[in-house]
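Observation: inputs received (chain + adenosine monophosphate).
Thought: call the complex predictor directly.
Action: predict_structure
Action Input:
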Amino acid sequence: MLARSNHLRNLGKTISFVPTMGYLHEGHLSLMRLAKSMADLLVVSIFVNPTQFGPAEDLSTYPRNFERDQSLCRNEGVDILFYPTAAEMYGPRFQTFITLEQLPHHLCGISRPVFFKGVATVVTKLFHIVKPHTAVFGQKDYQQVRIIQQMVEDMDMDIQITSGPTVRETDGLAMSSRNAYLSASQRPSALTLYQAICQTKNFLESGLTDAKILIQKAANLILSFPDTSIDYIAICDPDSLEDMQTIDRPAVMALAVKVGKTRLIDNMMLSPR
Ligand code: AMP
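Observation:
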């Protein structure tokens, strides 16, 4: 891959890049379409990165279907599909990691303490191998995009980071590879993340701006459905991810909810009236 990237750059070609963990859905494909319009060649990676999973998380059961992913990539006109093995990415001597000081101490980083260290490290490695001019990430993982943007800025990486909007099922559920874990009976509970965000938007529209009250109302809605437990519900500053007390300026509502054993996340920008 590195040889190919160098060759393409020497030919004067621009490279856009969409990193994924595979089990592709319409959300991934929308990022590919966006990325394809931004450079001469589109590279997609599929790598279920072991360093971003905690010991009790779903690394071994994470859904995989390489054949299907490969044909979806072909249909989208992906020029290069990069799918390294864990052994290729992390040799036995591997010991260097990228960590950020502040952004990982909010939202998902609290219950997944190694997650963003793994993400920042693997994205850095992928950037060095693929050598993209531009890379596209999904807003679905809001904190992840913020962290990548910050890392690129801090480490002077010459890569333009773009984020693409969250693609949803027709009922509003944010598409995710992990939705494959949900049973039909868990589906209404899974939908409460989106419903809680919509409810918050409606309350905000009617003049309620107190974050604590809005979060409580969201929690009440979610917990009224079976099999749900809340990891976090936050209304935070879009840049720093610090909690906000009052929505008197643009904010992000972000939440993580477990439905049975499946952990789901969602988020949306909130703007005061
Ligand atoms: P993943 O395979 O889950 O690591 O995701 C790969 C990329 O796809 C990340 O940039 C995600 O933010 C993005 N992504 C995942 N789900 C969606 C979605 N529903 N809409 C848009 N982008 C998404």
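Thought: report the result.
Final Answer: The pocket of adenosine monophosphate is lined by residues 20-21, 27-28, 30-31, 137-138, 140-141, 164, 166-167, 174-177 (CB under 6 Å). The chain has a mean pLDDT of 98.
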